[in-house]
Amino acid sequence: MKQAAPLDTPPPGFRSGFVGVVGKPNVGKSTLVNAFVGQKISIVSPRPQTTRQRILGILTRPDAQAIFIDSPGWHEPTHPLGRYLVGVAKGVVEEADVAVMVLDATSGIRKEDEWLMDELRRTKRRAVLALNKVDQVHKRLLLPLLERCAATGLFEAYVPVSALTGDQVPVLLEELIRRLPEGPYWYDPGTLTDQSHPQAIRELIREQVLLATRQEVPHAVAVMIEEIVEEEKRLVIHATIIVEREGQKGILIGKGGSMLKRVGTAARQEVERLVGRHVFLDLRVKVVSDWRSDPTLLRDLGYEQGKA
Ligand SMILES: Nc1nc2c(ncn2[C@@H]2O[C@H](COP(=O)(O)OP(=O)(O)OP(=O)(O)O)[C@@H](O)[C@H]2O)c(=O)[nH]1
Ligand SMILES: [Mg+2]
For the residues of 287-300, what is the DSSP string, one character each? Predict the structure, then answer.
């Protein structure tokens, strides 16, 4: 997978490599990747298991290229989709030059965090701890938490941060970059992500569904891009939102179609920001029973090991 791009030789002392961003669901991994790169690379929502793929966010500067790998959250899987997500997250720990474990300072160390620490121990991965969401906790609560993390002996550095406000993010960035090996440009300096436009569009639609729904609906949603048609003045996108039950379809369509319209408008605006063009977004909702448990459907939807 690691293949240097045929680019100019970097200056002497240039550091480059892969930073695995790992942690339990909802701790702020994607928010942090976006903050590092300074662009919206990965979607963010208050629902756990927002990220379902390995997504690269690439930061290139004169002295270094850091390739951040966003990953799904560590959790105990209850169905095949969950097992896929945890498999992807494990792969990210394996392939990283250095891992940044994101811990939610508002919730402390939970069993999912301990599983991840076991994995860091097992793989002997170099790791830095980011204690995130410090904007939400009193400073005096941070010290005991940092001490507990230090007692594990797993981390080379500890940085309290707020991925949301950006507080201490530059400090964390330097801690990570100084641990990267000397190396080449792995990606063209202008490249920010490995996501294709259709993949990014699919995610932006899913993000708006996650933001608009709650309880079991966000977990039951997948999005498929059916067709993208380039017209002279606009981009026409046909997409299907897949849910598992008729009831979920009803929620997503809403009274007189109001919910779907709201989701569609918000998603269209996000997609327009991404592609820099007018967009016409045609959204449908379809029920596909238990798609999360069907290996063939999972594969069709792109949730297959090694595939985005
Ligand atoms: N207050 C506060 N909220 C944050 C911070 N970082 C992230 N959040 C919020 O936490 C929620 C989850 O953020 P994500 O970045 O989607 O978390 P994640 O770890 O990528 O979650 P999964 O993809 O589900 O594993 C969102 O509502 C974010 O706005 C932070 O530093 N402070
Ligand atoms: Mg995420």
Answer: E-TTGGG-HHHHHH
Inter-residue contact 19 to 98 (CB < 8 Å): yes
* Whether the model pTM is above 0.85: yes
Atom of ligand 1 nearest to the CA of 44: 16
Atom of ligand 1 nearest to the CA of 49: 24
- Written as six digits, the tokens of 190 are 């202008």
Query: Residue 133: CB within 6 Å of ligand 1?
Result: yes
Confidence of residue 68 (pLDDT cuts 50, 70, 90): very high
Ligand 1 pocket test, candidate residues 22, 24, 26, 132, most atoms within 8 A of CB: 26
pLDDT digits 0-9 by tens, 218-269: 999 999 999 999 999 999 999 999 999 999 999 999 999 999 999 999 999 9
CATH match for 15-177 among 3.40.50.720, 3.30.70.1050, 3.30.70.20, 3.40.50.300: 3.40.50.300
Q: Both tokens of residue 271?
A: 């997609």
